[in-house]
Amino acid sequence: MPKFIKISRVARATKSDKTQRTIFLRVFPSWENGKDFTFSTKITVPENRWNNVTKSVLGTGIESNRINTQLNQLEAETQNVFQQYINGVVNPRLKELKSVIEFKLFNKGIGKTRELLVSDLFDRYVELHRSDLGAIRIQRYTFVQRCVNDFNLIRFGKSSVEVKELNKEWRDGFKQFMMNRFNYQPSTMNGYLKVLHAAVKYAYDTNYIDKFPFKDCKFDKHESKIKYLTEEEYSSIADYNFSKADERIQRTADCFLFACNTGLAFSDMRSLKKSDLERGSDGCLSIVKYRGKTGVRFLVPLNELSKSIIEKYTHHQNVVGTDLLLPVIHINDFNQLLKMIALMCGLNKNLSSHVARHTFATTNWLDNGGSLETLQSILGHNKIKTTEMYGKITSRKVREEASLVHKNQAKKGASMP
């Protein structure tokens, strides 16, 4: 008689936090007369997010979908491991099957396998978060992983170093190694250290490692200097006649102004599609999209200038036949042409794509009556303190405040491309 297994899900209180639930898979082999075994998936969810009837995470958001997909994948992988196991044995045993599954899925069991390596933590984090990290953030994790391996090669004479070597001293050494190699600003260095912390902390939070080795480590404090254009500087670009300039310069100037009026990061602007436009019941046309960097949903009501820029490039050769809204050029060329635009407009400022995002937040939003809490929603920030705001914001409030901002801009006279 064919042998098979059935799998169910069980949620148990997490040892370190009783408000969390660790998800286990329970395996019922058909030949064991009702006997079963369980193993941890290393996945934890808040108690109030777990549906014990459907055995899945509640909600349809990115995080809920990601975890439910992971659980489905683990069940499928368990079935695959079982098939490989059952095809190679005559008399299958319960404990042996469990050991094989834990070894194949988590490098655990079947005697002593190799110790968990630091590099493994990055691979695991990226694999489990791939769907919502985005290409740019995945590159950051890959870069830090490569730097960690380089540092370990210098420190230990090998790049394959076990997780047990991680501690505050190791982190301090890695930080100094990065500073010596790249001479980073404190804010940039903090960003890469946060990538390191995220990979290691997630392994700890999901019971993959026993302790968080950087618990007492702090990030350097620094003052962020936000570069943005004043109203006069912004107007010098908005009012400049680029009609006689190179077409790529015109295009770059228009896309820069579009970002100044929507707050979009360069990667989100370049990937902006017609399907990202949504017209509300009040007739307001808005961008509704998920940030490539954070996966956070944001909504940006468009003012007249933004809509006119979209209309201007409707028939551009790089847009026709695609779902793209704007013919945005490559980031390197974009930033180089912005420097030429600054010279043409008499600006003594190092323009970059992100200056546009900051200009939107300061000059074109807050200075025209917009609030910090609505700004956080529009920019798609993942954390409250990023924009120092409080409370949640609704799409309706975004549109209402956008209407006020746009009216104030119109009174001042918004320039058209």
Oligomer: single chain
Give the topology string: H per helix, E per strand.
Answer: EEEEEHHHHHHHHHEEEHHHHH
Task: Assign the CATH superfamily of the largest domain.
Answer: Intergrase catalytic core
Strand order of the largest sheet: 1-2-3
State the share of residues found in helices, binned by percent: 40-55%
Q: What's the story with the biggest beta sheet?
A: 3 strands, antiparallel
Report mean pLDDT, rounded to a whole number. Answer: 84
Q: What gross morphology would you assign?
A: globular
What is the count of distinct domains? Answer: 3
Beta-strand residue percentage: 5-15%
Low-confidence stretches: 110-114, 386-397
Structural class: alpha+beta
Q: Write down the CATH class of the largest domain.
A: Mainly Alpha
User: What's the CATH topology name of the largest domain?
Assistant: hpI Integrase, Chain A
CATH architecture of the largest domain: Orthogonal Bundle
Tell how many strands the DSSP assignment holds. Answer: 8
Quickly count the helices: 14
Distance between the termini: 75 Å
Rg computed from alpha carbons, rounded to a whole number of angstroms: 26 Å
Walk me through this protein's architecture.
With 417 residues, this protein is of the alpha+beta class. It folds into 3 domains: 5-106, no CATH class; 118-205; 231-412, hpI Integrase, Chain A (Orthogonal Bundle). 48% of the residues lie in helices and 12% in strands. The chain is built from 14 helices and 8 strands. The protein has helices at residues 62-86, 94-106, 118-133, 135-156, 168-182, 186-205, 231-238, 247-262, 266-270, 304-312, 331-344, 353-365, 372-379, 395-412; strands at 5-14, 17-29, 37-46, 50-51, 56-57, 277-279, 285-290, 297-301. The strands form 3 sheets. It has a 3-stranded antiparallel β-sheet. It has a 3-stranded antiparallel β-sheet with strand order 6-7-8. The longest helix is centred in the first third of the chain and has 25 residues, at 62-86. The radius of gyration is 26 Å and the shape is globular. The termini are far apart. 28% of the residues are buried.
